[in-house]
Design brief:
Layout: E1 3-8, H1 12-24, E2 30-36, H2 48-53, H3 67-74, E3 77-80, E4 82-88, E5 93-98, E6 104-108, E7 111-114, E8 118-120, E9 133-135, H4 139-149, E10 157-161, H5 165-176, E11 180-185, H6 196-209, E12 212-215, E13 219-225, E14 228-234, E15 237-240, E16 243-246, E17 250-252, H7 255-260, E18 284-286, E19 293-294, E20 301-302, H8 307-321, E21 335-339, E22 342-348, H9 351-357, E23 361-369, E24 380-388, E25 394-401, H10 409-417, H11 422-425, H12 442-454
Parallel strand pairs: 1-2, 1-7, 2-3, 7-18, 9-16, 10-11, 10-16, 11-12
Antiparallel strand pairs: 4-5, 5-6, 8-17, 13-14, 14-15, 19-20, 21-22, 22-25, 23-24, 24-25
Helix pairs in contact: 1-8
GO molecular function: oxidoreductase activity
Family: Belongs to the class-III pyridine nucleotide-disulfide oxidoreductase family.
Cofactor: FAD
């Protein structure tokens, strides 16, 4: 009799695990059932703002593999619109609700893959019955927002609450759709994923795009009229709105896991080992935005919800479930985004992270250009490096600039991954041609500046 694998969650981590397991074991040996509460599998949630803005024309372009493809090409029984509501580890059984049919489904398992992702942070004031309030976590969320924006007459005033990646990207998307946009952030500036001095550059660019930014402001309530949101109430006065986007971050979706007795770590994510096995629970695996992982620089457990990690972790779990051997090496927090043409990249530790981890360090900021200064299209680029004192080991990096800025963070991520010092980095053999870089690449300029800052006084 074939072993049965149940997958809870049909996006990046879950379907990567299912696909890898199938590649190594045929149906006679392994039966795979995947439950997904939404309408879509294996889609790019990161692409939703660009579909909302109109830069991506068709929603289906965001779907890498649909349920039919998994059924026909991978022999995986994908059941969309089925929400797993309980996991019984003693009976080795999951209980799911058919959201369209209203019936309960019970399925036994030998192996369980838990990949429920993350859920948006939603304060008490956001729980309103009024229409027009949206999170942007799933493709179903994006579809509901797109339908609201496409209504006749369309909304004209948008308020985005929260200035992280989603908040910044959605603010841009709504401006491109012609809405008047206000971004509300309770901290002193948006983009807390980078240090304040670098975030200020992002704030300036957003204001240049036409976004009104209200910082140091706390939302306290949402007002509605005729069943629709009409106003965001703050401690600094009301803001008119006929669509509200919640961009307050996410937390691991672990309610099911906690109820089933799976162990959670200090970040709230599920505790797993390097092979993505749930700690102390035989036959149960987890991956993606619902787990915590190790930060390779700080050595601390972290929750970093990114599709890149989810896909890699799911692949590792699937290889192991399929009888192979693979490990996940941890993260360093590399991420990029953009605000109109301004590009933002970060990797490793921010200053406050380095302080919390107990490092002594220096920080330097280097101003340069993306291309040779005389070449058409040369634009400013700001690179910030954080290096350990006295070793010079790179601890973190941030870049804000125009064309060719964001992907330069990958050079710094590789250096960070391999524990290079800033002195090592000054000798990197990087590509040079006037259309692509100055003779001294901005990365090298910043590394030299960090070496100088580390020199004994």
């Amino acid at each position: 009799m074939a072993e049965r694998l149940i997958v809870v969650g049909g996006d990046a981590a879950g379907m990567a695990a299912a696909s890898q397991a199938r590649r190594r074991r045929n149906r006679d040996d392994l039966e795979i059932i995947a439950f997904e509460r939404g309408h879509f599998t294996s889609y790019s949630a990161c692409g939703i703002p660009y579909w909302i803005s109109g830069l991506v024309a068709d929603r289906e372009q965001l779907v890498a593999r649909d349920p039919a493809t998994f059924r026909e090409s991978y022999d995986i029984d994908v059941r969309i619109r089925h929400e797993v509501v309980a996991i019984d580890l003693n009976r080795r059984e999951v209980i799911a609700m058919d959201l369209d049919g209203g019936t309960e489904v019970r399925e036994p398992f030998d192996t369980l893959m838990y990949a429920t992702g993350a859920v948006p942070t939603k304060p008490a004031w956001a729980h309103t019955g009024g229409a027009g309030v949206f999170g942007v976590q799933t493709l179903d969320d994006g579809s509901a927002l797109r339908e609201w924006l496409d209504a006749d007459p369309p909304p004209r005033q948008a308020v985005v609450v929260g200035g992280g990646y989603i908040g910044v990207e959605m603010a841009e998307a709504l401006v491109l759709r012609g809405l008047s946009v206000t971004l509300v952030e309770r901290d002193e500036q948006p983009m807390s994923t980078v240090d304040p001095d670098m975030a200020q550059l992002v704030t300036d660019a957003m204001r240049g795009l036409g976004v009104t930014i209200r910082t140091g402001v706390q939302v306290t309530a949402l007002s509605e009229r005729d069943g629709r949101v009409c106003e965001v109430v703050t401690d600094d006065g009301p803001i008119p709105a006929d669509v509200v986007i919640l961009g307050l971050g996410v937390r691991p979706n672990t309610a099911l896991a906690e109820a089933a007795g799976l162990p959670l770590g200090p970040t709230g994510g599920i505790r797993v080992d390097r092979r993505m096995r749930v700690t102390g629970v035989p036959g149960v695996w987890a991956a993606g935005d619902c787990v915590e992982t190790l930060h390779r620089v700080s050595g601390m457990p972290v929750h970093v919800p990114l599709g890149t990690h989810a896909n890699k972790q799911g692949r590792v779990a699937g290889i192991n479930i399929g009888g192979g051997y693979a490990t996940f090496a941890g993260v360093i927090g590399t991420a990029v985004t953009k605000v109109c043409d301004l590009e933002v990249g970060r990797t490793g530790l921010r200053e406050r992270d380095a302080l919390a981890a107990g490092f002594e360090f220096v920080s330097v900021i280097a101003e340069s250009t993306n291309r040779a200064g005389y070449y058409p299209g040369a634009r400013p680029m700001t690179v910030k490096l954080i290096a350990e004192r006295p070793s010079g080991r790179l601890l973190g990096a941030q870049i804000v600039g125009w064309s060719e800025a964001a992907k330069r963070i990958d050079t710094l991520a590789v250096a960070l991954w391999n524990r290079m010092t800033v002195d090592d980095m000054t000798a990197l053999d990087l590509g040079y041609a006037p259309p692509y870089a100055p003779v001294w690449d901005p990365v090298l300029v910043a590394a030299r500046k960090a070496v100088d800052a580390l020199a004994p006084r």
